[in-house]
Amino acid sequence: QVQLAESGGGLVQAGGSLRLSCAASGRTFSNYAMAWFRQAPGKERAFVASMNWTGRGTRYADSVKGRFTISRENAKNTVLLQMNDLKREDTAVYYCAASPLTWGVTSTDYNYWGQGTQVTVSS
To answer: What is the pLDDT of residues 36-88, one digit of tens each?
Structure first.
């Protein structure tokens, strides 16, 4: 198993930036593809970004392309989500997820989840 813990959420004005961090512990981090999802109030959990085991492959939701960047530091067992030019519609709880098999775009692709961190964007 792998345990995940997100940090870095908070309140930010529209147009601002935040960097989320997800620390992994347990099994070998480099054996897992990583992803970020988010869930806004009253909505289903939605894909944000994913990265494969080597870090050379990335996928992004259309709504965040060009604004968000996913990265990983295998030596530190950490995956990051740099969020720039934040919009009110980015307000959500952001979750880190891990999978040993796939770096897909659906929540069912991932076996392990963190508890989430709240991001609130004000106008």
So the answer is: 999 999 999 999 999 999 889 999 999 999 999 999 998 999 999 999 999 99
Contacts of 50 (CB under 8 A, 6+ apart): 33, 34, 35, 36, 58, 59, 70, 103, 104, 105
**Measured at the alpha carbon of residue 104, what is the angle toward residues 32 and 29, in degrees to the nearest 5?**
10
**What is the enclosing helix (H) or strand (E) of 121?**
strand 117-122
DSSP string, 42-85: TS--EEEEEE-SSS--EEE-TTTTTTEEEEEEGGGTEEEEEE-S
